[in-house]
Write a structure and sequence with these properties.
Number of helices: 6
Number of domains: 1
Strand order of the largest sheet: 2-1-3-4
CATH superfamily: Response regulator
Radius of gyration: 15 Å
Shape: globular
Helix content: 25-40%
CATH topology: Rossmann fold
Distance between the termini: 10 Å
CATH class: Alpha Beta
Strand content: 5-15%
């Protein structure tokens, strides 16, 4: 896991701490990043931590701006109990200021985020989603399922469930 030790006053599940803003990022913001947002929202809701987190997602490609997540992703997600209602958008310059943690789905997204980050401080906020996987250690990326079949969407959800649980634990334990 990337070393991103946080200021103990900014990111914690401690009730005296402010909200932690997590931004999930993929290419088009219609498959992986909105699914990550939905999975994480479900986890924070289950743990009664909704008041402690602000969750969002975006992408680099603007061709889907305003669209709901891909229908196939929504179908697979709803089977697992996740409602994906986010509307696609591109990353904005101020996202780097607002977010406490910026989560890339793959190496290309990571590289693009590092290049777009306006400062070294902003770059320190960027992590890979799979850095938080505990049950899928062989995966170093959340693959784009857009051109894949049903098994691609299921794999993405498996990885996101694992990684989001690991990320939430890491935030609550003050590791990120």
């Amino acid at each position: 896991m990337k070393d991103m030790k946080s200021d103990s006053n900014s990111r914690s599940c401690n009730p005296m701490r402010p909200k932690t803003h997590i931004l999930f990022v993929c290419l088009g913001n219609i498959c992986r990043s909105p699914a990550a947002q939905g999975v994480m929202q479900s986890l924070v809701d289950e743990r009664g931590l909704s008041h402690k987190f602000a969750l969002d997602s975006c992408g680099f490609y603007g061709g889907h701006a305003g669209d709901l997540p891909d229908k196939r992703m929504r179908v697979h997600a709803v089977r697992r109990g996740y409602e994906l209602t986010h509307r696609s958008r591109t990353i904005r310059p101020w996202d780097f200021d607002e977010a406490d943690i910026i989560v890339a789905m793959d190496g290309h997204n990571y590289d693009d985020l590092m290049e777009a980050a306006p400062s070294p401080e902003a770059q320190k906020k960027i992590v890979m989603m799979t850095d938080f996987c505990r049950l899928h250690p062989g995966h170093d990326t959340v693959p784009d399922p857009y051109y894949e079949g049903a098994e691609g969407f299921e794999l993405v959800l498996d990885l996101l469930e694992d990684a989001c649980a690991g990320l939430l634990d890491a935030v609550c334990e003050g590791e990120v």
